[in-house]
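Q:
Got a chain?
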Amino acid sequence: MRTILAPLTLTSILIHSINMTRSSPWLPAAEALALMQVRPQTLYAGVSRGRIRAKPDAADPRRSLYHRDDVQRLAARAQGRRSSEAVASEAIQWGEPVLPSAVSTVAGGRLWYRGQDACALSIEATLEDVAGLLWECAPPRLSSDEATARDGMPPLQAGLRALAMRAAVDPPSRGRSPQALRAEAADVVGTLADALIGKVPANAAAQPLHARLAAAWRRPRAAPQLRRALVLLADHELNASTFAARVTASTGASIAACLLTGLATLTGPLHGGAARAVQALVRQAEQLGADAAAREWLAHDRPLAAFGHPLYPAGDVRCAALLEGIELPPAFADLREAGERLVGEPVNIDFALAALAAVHKLPADAPLVLFALARSVGWTAHVLEQAATGHLIRPRARYTGPAVSVD
C-alpha cells in the first residue's frame, strides 16, 4: 500500500520543489515521491523503463536526482488530471510508447535489439549480422544487383537520388510475402550503400559494409571501429526517421519509398545532422578554448548537441561503447570536460561519431554516412514489421485554429 503524505506535508514539499526548480530541473527522491504519490519501487521502475531521467547527485553520489518534467508528467497522468488528448499529444515528445514493436527498445539504460544487448553485439557482430537479427532471417548480403553511379555527387545527395529512382518504379510492399520483401530489402539497402560509399577497390566489393567503407575512405585501420559504429547505430526505437518510415510503410508504399522517407528525415539538424554541430563546436573550441566555446554556444541559446540524451539518464551507452579504445584528441577531451561540467550531462553518440571521424581523419560527412547506412537496416526492420500488420497509421489532429460552427 502506498504511503499518502498529509496535506500540509505535501504542500510544503511542493512549495519547496517549485522554489528549487527555479534554479535546477532535478529533484531529490523525496520530492519526486511526494509529487507522484507512489512507492519508491514505482519511481525506480519509471527510471528503468526510460520514462524518468535520473542522474547521480553531485553532493552525494549514493543518491539520485530525478528530472522534474518527467516526474510531473507521470504524476499528473497517474492522478487523472490530464485528458486523453493531452496524454496522446505528449506521447510523441519522448513520452509513452505509441506503437507496439518487437524490433528494439531502450530499457534499464541499455539498448536492446530483439532482446539482445546492442553494445555486447557490437564487440564482434557486423551490420549484416544485425540485419539478420532484426529482419529475422539469415544475415543478408547488403549489396545491389545493379551498380549505382554517384556521378560526382556528395554521398547524401547520391543516396537520396538512388532511393528516389527506385521509389518511382519499385512495386508496393502491400500484399507481398515476408520472404519477397526481405529479398527486396537487401537489394534496396545495397542500392543505398553503393550510393553512399561510392567506388571501392575490386578486392573489397564483396566485403561487409564496414570493410567497404574503410576501403573507400582508405582507412583500413578504422575498419573495426566503423563496424562497431554501424552496429550501435542500426536501430533506436521509434526515433523521428524510423517513425516516418513506418508511416510510409503503413500506406503500402515500396521499401525504397520507405527508406527514402527515413533518409530525408535523418538529414535534419536535430537528428542525423547533429554530428555536424559537434564538429562546428570542436572547431570553435580549438579557436577559443573549450570552456569559452561552450559558454558562447549556451549564451546564444544553442544547445550543446554533444551532451545528454533523454533515454539515457546515466549516459549514452552507445557513446561509451564506441569510445572504447579511442584516444580523444585534445580538443575533444577538453570539450568533453568543459561541456559535462557546464551542462551536467555526459557526452552522447553524436560526440563519439565526430571523435571517430577526427581520430581517423575521415571525410567531414562520415558521421552522417555511418548513421544513414546503419539506420537503413533498422528502418527496414520496422518497415517489415509494419507491413505485417496491414494497418494504416493515421492519428487525429487536435485542432487549434479559428472556431468552427457545428450544427
Q: What stands out?
A: Confidence is low (pLDDT under 50) at residues 1-23. The radius of gyration is 23 Å. DSSP finds 19 helices and six strands in the chain.
